[in-house]
């Protein structure tokens, strides 16, 4: 989701207290072409590493505990060729350099994904001022001091799963409560990446976690990806103002470029700048109200969204228990920064599917905005936050 440089800011240069990497240590490259030694280091006093998960059907997922990130995700295309379908960097130096290569690529975002208006929340009748990092708002928990730029502990790992853990102190970026959270990534034999987020708190707070992987299924992220075919299982969306803050309205998608109930190529509607929402965002960067969430519960067995590449035959289906899905089409890419394997990503090269509470839910809940009650982000002591996100891959020939 948008405006990466703005929200990360320039203070992140202090993170680059990197110890020397693996020196003469050698390791086999991953299927996606990554060198694990380029991630083997110490950052802010904590060990950082590349973790590789695999199944028996040609799927490989590489992750780093820096930000709990997906670095690469390889699945077979229609010819059986391993294809890396996510964007990112191929070394820890660029991920940690928030001054020169700011990015939320593949991260486990917390403690609050998306934007909070005017960088403040009300919890238990008390107003808390948050870190400002996106215009006058808070985005992704505070940007370069949020969880996406913290080193998670590796709580457990196997050949097919890893659990990252983080403890966020009371007052972190202005948020109340000490929060203990985990992000578990599991690769299944049906070529599914199953992600579970959990959190507890010692003081009432707000929680909204998601994964921020940028998908390009075409096999060539040097080219625009808007020829991919997208489906979103939603009758309504939440319009935003020019600063990406939801207005509070919940609008029907019928007759607008927001209607993806019938799958179509993104390029068919993303160029319609006569529509204010696309004009303001220079593409899609919006929350859809999922039809898979009914009666206060999300059905994570039903497809919430999908993306298909006619070039590779790769189909991605997204499942979640959350009420909303922020879909972002890489509108702030095209910076000219060399990324994974030296490729410079163009604008609109990718699509993010961020399952979550609606953006700015704390404000709207306090204001009792109609229709937003299903997106309650508040977590109290004794409760456990649970969010489920699934990326399932298959091939259509």
TrEMBL record:
<dbReference type="GO" id="GO:0006006">
    <property type="term" value="P:glucose metabolic process"/>
</dbReference>
<comment type="pathway">
    <text>Carbohydrate metabolism; hexose metabolism.</text>
</comment>
<feature type="binding site">
    <location>
        <position position="285"/>
    </location>
    <ligand>
        <name>beta-D-galactose</name>
    </ligand>
</feature>
<keyword id="KW-0413">Isomerase</keyword>
<keyword id="KW-0732">Signal</keyword>
<dbReference type="GO" id="GO:0033499">
    <property type="term" value="P:galactose catabolic process via UDP-galactose, Leloir pathway"/>
</dbReference>
<feature type="binding site">
    <location>
        <begin position="212"/>
        <end position="214"/>
    </location>
    <ligand>
        <name>beta-D-galactose</name>
    </ligand>
</feature>
<dbReference type="GO" id="GO:0005737">
    <property type="term" value="C:cytoplasm"/>
</dbReference>
<dbReference type="InterPro" id="IPR014718">
    <property type="entry name" value="GH-type_carb-bd"/>
</dbReference>
<dbReference type="GO" id="GO:0004034">
    <property type="term" value="F:aldose 1-epimerase activity"/>
</dbReference>
<feature type="binding site">
    <location>
        <begin position="114"/>
        <end position="115"/>
    </location>
    <ligand>
        <name>beta-D-galactose</name>
    </ligand>
</feature>
<comment type="similarity">
    <text>Belongs to the aldose epimerase family.</text>
</comment>
<dbReference type="InterPro" id="IPR008183">
    <property type="entry name" value="Aldose_1/G6P_1-epimerase"/>
</dbReference>
<dbReference type="InterPro" id="IPR047215">
    <property type="entry name" value="Galactose_mutarotase-like"/>
</dbReference>
<dbReference type="InterPro" id="IPR015443">
    <property type="entry name" value="Aldose_1-epimerase"/>
</dbReference>
<feature type="signal peptide">
    <location>
        <begin position="1"/>
        <end position="22"/>
    </location>
</feature>
<feature type="active site" description="Proton acceptor">
    <location>
        <position position="354"/>
    </location>
</feature>
<dbReference type="InterPro" id="IPR011013">
    <property type="entry name" value="Gal_mutarotase_sf_dom"/>
</dbReference>
<dbReference type="InterPro" id="IPR018052">
    <property type="entry name" value="Ald1_epimerase_CS"/>
</dbReference>
<keyword id="KW-0119">Carbohydrate metabolism</keyword>
<feature type="active site" description="Proton donor">
    <location>
        <position position="212"/>
    </location>
</feature>
<protein>
    <recommendedName>
        <fullName>Aldose 1-epimerase</fullName>
        <ecNumber>5.1.3.3</ecNumber>
    </recommendedName>
</protein>
<keyword id="KW-0106">Calcium</keyword>
<comment type="subunit">
    <text>Monomer.</text>
</comment>
<dbReference type="Pfam" id="PF01263">
    <property type="entry name" value="Aldose_epim"/>
</dbReference>
<dbReference type="GO" id="GO:0030246">
    <property type="term" value="F:carbohydrate binding"/>
</dbReference>
